[in-house]
Amino acid sequence: MKKLVSFILIFSFLCLDILSLHAAEPLRGSVSETNQMQNIQTDIFTGAIEKLNKKEIINMTVSQVLDSSISIEGDEFFAEVTDDVYGDKGIIIPKGTHAHGKLTKTTAPGKMGKAATMDLSFDYLVTPDGREIPIEGSMSTKLHPVAEGAKVVAQDLGYTVAGGAVGGFMALNWLGIEAAIASQGYTLAGGAAIGGAAGLAVALLRKGNHVLIAPGDEIKVKIVTPLELPVYKEEALKQEEILYDGLKININDVKHGKDPFGEVNTITLSVLISNMSDKTLSGFDMALVNDYNAKFSPSIFGNTKLMFRQIKPGEKVAAEVSFAVDNLSRKFWLTFYDRKNNQVITKVSVDNAYKNIPEKSRIKNKKIRTKHKNYKKDDDFMELDI
């Protein structure tokens, strides 16, 4: 039954991924063999060759759920590169490149808070221009023993508190309210202390957690063999835009952040809009659209100046606007629609703008997106094995 459920889930997500690959517009031209460098087309590549060094780290996100309680060794999946990989002379692996992977090893959760683990391997990349590049890459959810021990202790502090509360109530039930009053509460305090120790002991005997990697979770893939790759021209990697005569929209900064609930899912754009066209833009007709054509309206938790105003012909506006999205790693376009016919007026690529934002913003964004790497499943958090 476990294998059947796993097969159904994987098949469904692979179908979605294949459809998205066909729907995506490829870059101009293609190369059939990586080692035939003499055939590299000059409209895509500079002609320079860079070396992807051994132990290079590539940031990716998976396209389907990998779950240690369902997935089995040998399961195949696709991941997508979330950040351009640079050599000394330019980009050698662009964002949006797909990687084929396989689940090579799983371990079940154990006692003493030991989590399950998954080991992944990668054997080839499919670039946006259609090239298939053989690679050797690996990734594991297993923590370093010291970090893993620290993680267990941190998680089990919650159990210590819970154990203390249970111990207090146990003392009250065993010795009675009269004893607690007579000792002016020391019985309850003592019970809480004993319960705290017992709670920690019980917590350390609980089952380890299953691990879960879901779309949107960034993983770090280490390359284990060096590889020579051509350098892309910047123009070849630019995303398509829709421009309108007289309307100029500059995205001067892109910031990633958390929503009020602590989720890292917010994109804040600093924009300068110069409207010398015959159109009136409305903040209510503005959206952030990703490469799956999902639309995200401006967030009410951000700056609402641009959301609640019109930009008439002849006006210039500088403002910030925030959007809560489902996956920060996707490609996005800031889009305005014509209210009369719902047709796109203009569509400006956030990814194109991102290459020119301040380095300080890129560093902060990277820290925010990679700060919390916890693949633990929460649904079995209170499951004990005593």
Description:
The protein is an alpha+beta fold. It folds into three domains: 165 residues, Lipocalin; 56 residues, no CATH class; 133 residues, Immunoglobulin-like. 25% of the residues lie in helices and 33% in strands. It has a six-stranded antiparallel beta barrel. A four-stranded antiparallel beta sheet has the order 17-16-20-21. Strands 13-14-19 form a three-stranded antiparallel beta sheet. Helix 2 runs antiparallel to helix 3. It is globular. The chain starts with a helix and ends in a 16-residue tail after the last helix. The relative contact order is 0.14. The N terminus and C terminus are likely disordered.
In short:
The chain is of the alpha+beta class and 386 residues long. It contains 5 helices and 21 strands. It folds into 3 domains: 2-141 and 211-235, Beta Barrel (Lipocalin); 149-204, no CATH class; 238-370, Immunoglobulin-like (Sandwich), CATH 2.60.40.
Distance between the termini: 27 Å
Order of helices and strands: HEEEEEEEEEHHEEEEEEEEEEEEHH
Helix content: 10-25%
| Class by SSE composition | alpha+beta
Low-confidence stretches: 1-11, 16-40, 144-207, 380-386
Largest sheet: 6 strands, antiparallel, barrel
Any idea of the CATH class of the largest domain?
Mainly Beta
What is the molecular shape?
A: globular
Number of domains: 3
Cross-sheet strand order for the largest sheet = 2-4-7-8-9-11
Question: Beta fraction of the residues?
Answer: 25-35%
| Radius of gyration using CA atoms only | 26 Å
Number of strands: 21
**CATH-level-2 architecture of the largest domain:** Beta Barrel
Mean pLDDT across residues = 75
- The CATH topology of the largest domain comes to Lipocalin
State the helix count.
5
